[in-house]
Amino acid sequence: MSQMTRAHRSGRRTRWAAAAACTALGAGTVRARRRLAALPALDPAPQDSGPDPAPPLGWRLLTAPGVTADPATLHAAVAHAVREGLQVLDLIPARLDAESALGLLRLLDPAAHRTDRCAPGHGAGRALLVTDEVLGRAGLAAGEPPRSPADLLRLVRTLKEYAPDATGWALAPGLTAPPPGPGEHAEELRARGLPPALLSAARLAGLALLVKCCVSAPRWGTAAAALYWLQPVAVLTPGRGLRPAGLARDTAARPLRSLTTALRTLATPAAEPPEPVDGADRRAAYTGELAAGTERFLEPRRTDCPWCSAPDLTVRVRMPDLLQGKPGRFTLEECRRCGHVFQNPRLTPEGLDFYYRDFYEGLGGEGAALVLGRMSGTYRDRAALLRPFTTPRAWLDVGTAAGHFCNAARTVWPDTRFDGLDMGEGVHEAARRGWITTAYQGQFPDLADRLAGRYDTVSMHHYLEHTRDPFAELDAAVKVLAPGGHLLIELPDPESRTGRLLGPYWLPWFQPQHQHLMPVGNLKQALAARGFTVLAEQHGAAHQGNGDFLAAVALLANRLAPDPRAPWATVPDTPARRAARRTVQAAVVPCYAAAFALDALGTVAARATDGGNAYRLLARKALG
Question: Does 564 reside within a domain?
Fold first, then answer.
């Protein structure tokens, strides 16, 4: 009886899985058809000139090897770009193979990405039409021609940043391209910023699930398998713009092709990141600094609270550097009187320089940009908080990093001048991209007198917690704001229940970078003491839904198997240690699925209860 019960439950679970697969495949098909319909198609008029024409003055056509554009296509592409106000136009061959087309439509939403200034740049990797002006600002005017589709995929990701609202896509019937080579799939996934091994493993798991469903739940399983098998025809039927060569043949062979592609990709050796040009010097510099120990980077421990001066302190959490894995241990203490949480002992300025190095720039710059570029909705919500109270004209974003917030906020306030201030070089890159108008590099309190009264809005998003003296930063904001100006602040909430649950693996502790985490009541008192009136307070709406539990899994994996290739690594870089790191990262993959579900539930709960892991305040400076 128990065996029959178990078999019944197993069959029921399989039917649910098959039904879920049907739903996901159906939704994916509808989404792909909608996205394909949003792709404009060039309508080339016949031209008399020969093949491979030169583009008009001010434009450059960049193509992958073997890709050609006839004169009519080039003429139509330039006309379309000028008409639509585009500076970057990704040209998609109408005969693009079916799997490449479906892969592109999974990533690219032409309508949304055209207006989302922070959306990543995706393309077909075959041809790009670009203005000389954008290439010049990106420092690529004299760059080498693309050597592969992967080069073009990397290029469109970069150029989208320099033309955030002037990048578009179009189907080009007159563009011819060779079929992809058998070994190009892994390289193209990496160029898109995607993990080939993980995606290939997921594809194999999906195929195995379809087989199991067909055996254990034939009705639903057959429906799911049919949806998967026929998806290329369902999306790319003639008359919808794309007309892949051999569509019927590729559709019939889809399961076998998917299986062989996934196996071939898994068998492709993982490409080791190239050694930076200054890699040896960087490693030598870290080795020299670490030889003197990390204790010298810490000031003497203080015995009272830096916020209220009370001597009643307790340890909140102790942890190593889980972010980069640099040596050192750090303690966050909490004041029992006011609840202020602070790093104790605190890092010296030299220590901050050591632990910030290669995080937002240098070795860690690409990863940081990837995370910051996925928060468009959060950026727009921050900017929209001012709508009931004011229309900003001159906005200074303090701690702007590479200017992602300012870039996105322009969609909310298109007539506002956004300037940025930060310690890093990225603030100048933000100005070159056009994300901010003026870049200020330095400490905010040091620049406050120079900027006195210039701005009607100042924002500090996840900035105050990084500073050594939050009171000095608030005083600087008072100076810089004109009378009646608005100050927008967002911070991690040290009163978050998730912070207590996850302990050292709660990402907002962010050691050793975060120096101070203040409860909302403390910050409101500090603002009132400086003549500010709080106009709006958000908790649930400010919740960072990008993953408390996902981040905890990643931090744990990084702690269990730190990167031995890091120039600050204290263990030898051996093949065995690299293999151990890959093994740990693969082993925690199932944990990410559970963490994703927990984060989704946490976000719903935060919105419903007005709680969460962060809070947001909007305050107005007194008129007098």
Answer: no
407, 471: one domain: yes
Q: How far apart are the first and last CA of the chain?
A: 82
Residue identified by tokens 């600002």 is 137
pLDDT band at residue 411 under the 50/70/90 scheme: very high
Which stretches within 392-433 are classed as H helix? Answer: 404-409, 426-433
Element (H, E) at 175: strand 175-176
Give Cβ neighbours of residue 186 (< 8 Å, ≥ 6 apart): 196, 265, 268
Cβ 145 vs Cβ 128: under 8 Å: no
405 within 8 A of 430, measured Cβ to Cβ: no
Helix (H, G, I), strand (E, B) or coil at 489: strand
**Single-letter amino acid code for the residue at 149:** P
DSSP assignment string, 535-568: EEEESGGG--TT-HHHHHHHHHHHHHS--TTSTT
CB atoms within 10 A of CB 307: 22
Quick one: 370 and 493 in the same domain? yes
pLDDT > 50? residue 608: yes
* Dihedral pair phi/psi, residue 567, rounded to 5°: -65, -15
β-bridge partners, 91 = 127, 170
Whether residue 273 lies inside any domain: the answer is no
Cα(406)–Cα(412) distance, rounded to whole angstroms?
10
Same structural domain, 140 and 253: no
What is the total count of domains within the chain?
4
One domain for residues 398 and 478: yes
Residue 459 · residue 390 · CB < 8 Å: no
Summarised one tens digit per residue, pLDDT across range 195-212 is 888 788 888 888 988 898
Looking at the domain assignment, is residue 318 inside a domain? yes
Contact 222, 183 (CB under 8 A): no
Helix (H) or strand (E) holding 111: helix 110-115
In a domain, 535, yes or no: yes
Tell which wins on pLDDT, 396 or 119: 396
Amino acid at 477: A
